[in-house]
Amino acid sequence: MAKVTVENLTKKYGKTTAVRNISFDLEDNEFFVLFGPAGAGKTTILNMIAGIGDPDEGRICFDGQSMNFIESSKRNVAMVFENYALYPHLTIYENIASSMRTKAHREPEEVIDREVKRIASLLRLEGLLDRKPSQVSNGQKQRAALGRAMVRKPNIFLMDEPLAHLDAKLRNAMRKELKAMQDKLQTTTLYVTHDYAEAMSLGDRIAVIHQGEICQIGTAEEVYNMPATEFVARMFGDSEINILQGVLRREDSTLKLVLPLSNRSYELPRHTAEVLEASGRKQVDVGLRSSAVRYSWRPEEGYVKGTVYTMEPLGNKVELTVKTEGGAVRLMVPVTETPDVDETIYLAFDVSGGIYFDSDSKEYIVCQKETAGKEGKR
Ligand SMILES: Nc1ncnc2c1ncn2[C@@H]1O[C@H](COP(=O)(O)OP(=O)(O)OP(=O)(O)O)[C@@H](O)[C@H]1O
Description:
Elements: E1 4-13, E2 16-26, E3 31-35, H1 42-50, E4 57-62, E5 65-66, E6 77-80, H2 92-98, H3 109-122, H4 138-150, E7 156-160, H5 168-185, E8 189-193, H6 196-202, E9 205-210, E10 213-218, H7 220-225, H8 230-235, E11 242-251, E12 254-259, E13 264-266, H9 270-279, E14 283-288, E15 293-296, E16 304-314, E17 317-324, E18 327-334, E19 344-349, E20 355-358, E21 364-367
Parallel strand pairs: 3-8, 3-9, 6-7, 7-8
Antiparallel strand pairs: 1-2, 1-4, 4-5, 9-10, 11-12, 11-14, 12-13, 14-20, 15-19, 16-17, 16-19, 17-18, 20-21
Helix pairs in contact: 2-4
Bound molecules: adenosine-5'-triphosphate.
């Protein structure tokens, strides 16, 4: 496995700049996720590392050695795609063995046999080796495709949405298998996905890509709790984060937050208040995830009245969009609490759990999680 360095990569297709000035390092044995919406440039980056399509600018190095003019077959990368790409006329055994029978990587037959059986056992494919791809399930096909990539010792695994075709249950199971495989094999992996839960559960680090540029690189905790921009904040979470307007106002020598939506002022945690004060802003955007929105079916002191506008089941919860006089708010409630559309609901906001952004640049300023455990409320 290799340390992979990507420096200032730019790729254009005619007038479209698919990737602009991208840089990151993959540590040896790291599981690194490229995460972003459709068309963000993820596959373009992966392909350039694989040697499919040259960059217009920038450098790709494996262990310090430039790969720019090295053809794909000589880079020793192993790729796994969304559509498995198994040979339909070969058995699962032969499919897995095929990557040890290429011109560039030919192994003796006894090594091939030993490796195929070792990987088949790791991926629980032992009983299926004589079958053709059409005779196994989608999950088993995807495991065979992984197996084919794993039998070699590549510099890097490149995986492009390998679980996207699978149903939710199988995707979950395969995610766990991939994680276990990563722990066991110690592989350097670059993994492309547009599924935030997959990115968070698999990635040692995640690079969030938007319109060909990197918005943030960080651990799952960092991108979730301290998103660099409002865009990043919106990309993570079952229910999209609420971004509410906030006004900062000095009251009795302390900085308070006023939410026009609730027409109330709130105390802020000390560190949050200090950083917001230092920012010199009078207006901020306040990111509140569903967990920072409380609800009640009866009027309560400090709660804002609203009506349930839409409901969407998400797993064992339901996402409600609530209309209030000041604007819409999203929150999750347990399925057991599912209301009727147009039912009245009362909401309160825990601004200490807020993520604060500059209302002009939409960039991160502060959140309490930065200092969680180090301070209490004033
Ligand atoms: N061969 C091509 N010719 C022209 N434009 C292309 C080509 N390949 C990609 N693009 C454009 O480059 C941009 C990035 O595409 P890319 O496939 O890398 O995105 P992605 O993040 O992988 O998206 P998805 O998740 O939909 O696969 C898009 O605007 C896309 O339309």
